[in-house]
Specification:
Layout (H helix, E strand, L loop, with lengths): L15 H10 L3 H30 L5 E4 L19 E6 L7 E6 L2 E8 L4 H12 L1 H16 L3 E3 L17 H4 L4 E7 L9 H12 L1 H10 L9
Antiparallel strand pairs: 1-2, 2-3, 3-4, 4-6, 5-6
Helix pairs in contact: 1-2, 4-7
């Protein structure tokens, strides 16, 4: 993640949200160039420091920490704006196999966990596990608990039942997911700029630990080659 890993997290910089408000209004190379120093000091360095402090608890047996690149992949996108209007960081073993996610953007700080994207082999393992009573009921209880605690359960879902499963399957709602994750957002407030944000994110990640461990154990990383 760079050379700032030993830096103590003290919150995101004073101009972090303003930077993204401006980028959302003017997603251009000239804006990025003029304001890159703000991105590096108020956004990127604090995000790296935040992940560094959380690594000891969440990355030891789960994966590695990454701050996502600020540039969008526009090769196949209709939207050709070059820069992401948020900064995301994650600890994960591999995409889809559970993730401790945190994001800073105009809407504030967002945290999440679960299966954000599933390749075909991962989706097959996900559905096999959901269809089994023990593992499927365990996931159902995990998601219900998160929802009751104020988390949003989101993801890509089929409009109908997946092929090969009966219409009266007791966990049909879960089987319809092609990706599923839990998300929680805090609008911009003073905490965003303070060290106490570390505790807020840590508490949120602890809440999704069971979900992530279920994903790691029953979905795992993809065996398909990267395109």
């Amino acid at each position: 993640m760079g050379g700032t890993l030993t830096t103590r997290f003290e919150g995101f910089g004073e101009h972090a949200v303003d930077f993204y408000d401006g980028l959302a209004a003017d997603n251009s190379k000239s804006y990025w160039t003029d304001n890159k120093a703000t991105y590096l000091t108020d956004v990127r360095a604090p995000m790296e420091a935040l992940l560094a402090e959380l690594t000891a608890e969440f990355a030891t047996d789960f994966g590695s920490a990454t701050v996502f690149r600020p540039y969008r992949d526009v090769r196949f996108a209709k939207d050709k704006t070059p820069y992401k209007t948020h900064c995301g960081g994650v600890i994960e073993p591999g995409r889809g196999a559970g993730a401790y996610y945190v994001e800073l953007g105009p809407e504030g700080v967002r945290t999440g966990g679960g299966c954000f994207h599933l390749h075909a082999d991962q989706l097959a393992r996900f559905r096999t596990a959901v269809a089994e009573e023990i593992h499927g009921e365990a996931l159902g209880k995990i998601l219900t608990k998160l929802e009751k605690a104020g988390w949003e359960i989101k993801g890509d879902r089929l409009a109908t039942k997946p092929r090969g499963y009966p219409a009266d399957h007791p966990r049909l709602d879960l089987l319809r997911y092609r990706s599923v994750y839990a998300a929680r957002t805090w609008p911009p407030d003073d905490v965003l700029h303070e060290r106490v944000l570390l505790d807020r994110v840590r508490k949120a990640w602890r809440a999704v630990r069971a979900f992530n461990e279920w994903a790691r154990d029953h979905v795992g990383i993809t065996e398909q080659p990267r395109r």
